[in-house]
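Final report, closing paragraph on structural work. Over the funding period we assembled a curated collection of sequence-structure pairs, and we close with a single example.
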Amino acid sequence: MGEGIKNGICVAFAGGGTGGHIYPGLAVASALKQAIPCRIFWIGSEKKLDRSIVEDGGIDFFSIPAGKLRRNFSFRNFSDFFKVIAGFFAARKILRREKPALLFSKGGFVSVPPCAAASSLGIPVFTHESDYSPGLATRINARFAEKSGGKIITAYPETAERFSLKIKEKVVVLGNPVRSVFRTADPAKGRAFLGVEKTDRILLVLGGSQGAKELNELVAASLEALTQTFVVVHQHGTDWGPPSNQKSASPRYKSYPYIKEELPHVLAAAELVLARSGAGTIWECAAAGKPMILLPLAGTGTRGDQLENARFFETAGAAAVLLPGKREAADLRGILQMLSADKLEAMASASRQIGNNDGSAKIIDLLINTLRQRTGG
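Its predicted structure, as stored:
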C-alpha cells in the first residue's frame, strides 16, 4: 500500500480542545503508521488532557497558544485574537523544523493556526469535518486546504453543500474515522473491568471527556428507575461528580470521571448507550453496533451540529432522541419503556450499518496518494 514512499517521511496532525477532535485523528494516525513507514507528530493545545491522550497513542506532541473562535460577540475575542496569532507563529516554527510532507487537521479551534501556517509554507492541508454541518474552524481551514492543494474531507454527502462552489470542488466524502479497537473490542474484558456478571444488562452513559452537566443530572434524577433494569455505567467527566450518597446508593451504579483504554471493551459490553451526539461518540457507538438515546447539545453556544447529528441517526433508526424541553426523568423513562428487545435489536442493526462505513481506510488512501506525489514515489 505504501510502496514508492521514501523512508523517514513526516506527517503533521493538528486538532484538539476535546476528545472528539483527537480520537478520530488518532485513528487516522494509527492506520497511517501501519500502512507506511513514517513519523507522525501532533500540534495541539496546552491542555494537559490533550497532551495525555496523544502521547498515550505513542505520538510526539507539541503545544501552541490557542484562542477560541466564537461566532458571537465577546470581549474575550480580542485577547484570543492575539493567542491565535501567537499560535500561528509557534506552529510555523514547528513545521519549518519538522518538515512534514502534509498536515491532517481534525478540527477544533487549536487547528486553525497550524493549518494557516502549513498553507503559508506550501504544505498541503487536509481538514476533516466529522459533523453533519461544518464548524467555524473547518470553514476557515477549508480555505487553507483549497489554497495549499489539499482537500476538505466530510463524513456526509450533504455537508459538501454547506461550502461555497469554489471550496466544494475540493470536498471529498469519505466517512468518519474510528479507532479499529471499537470494531474488535471484547465485551468480556469490559465486564471484567466493571466487575459485573454476564447476565447484567449495561446502560453506558457517556458524558464526554469534560462532562455534560444536563446529561449527568438527568441520570442522577433517574438513577433509581434506571438501576432497576440496568447496571448504569456513568462516565461523567472531570468537571462533575455524583453526590456521595448516590455513589453508595446501589451496587448497580458505577461512576467514572473518565474511562480511557478500557472504553472500547466497556462499550462492547453495553446493551444501550445514553450520550450527547458529538460526532466522535456516536460514530464509535455505531462502529460497535450500539443503539443510542441521544441528548443533543442545543441552545446558545452551539451551532446546532449535535442536533443535526442526532436527527441523522434517528432517521436511520439507530437512535432515539430527547429534544430540548423533553429531558425530565419521566421523559427518559418513557423512551426506555418503548425500547423492547426487538426494537433494541433493530436499532443496533441500523447503528451497525452506519458504522460499517469506516472512513479511516479511505482517508489513508487519499493521504498516501498525496505522499507519493510529494516524495516522487
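The longest helix spans residues 76-98. The chain has 16 helices and 13 strands. We thank the funder for supporting this effort.
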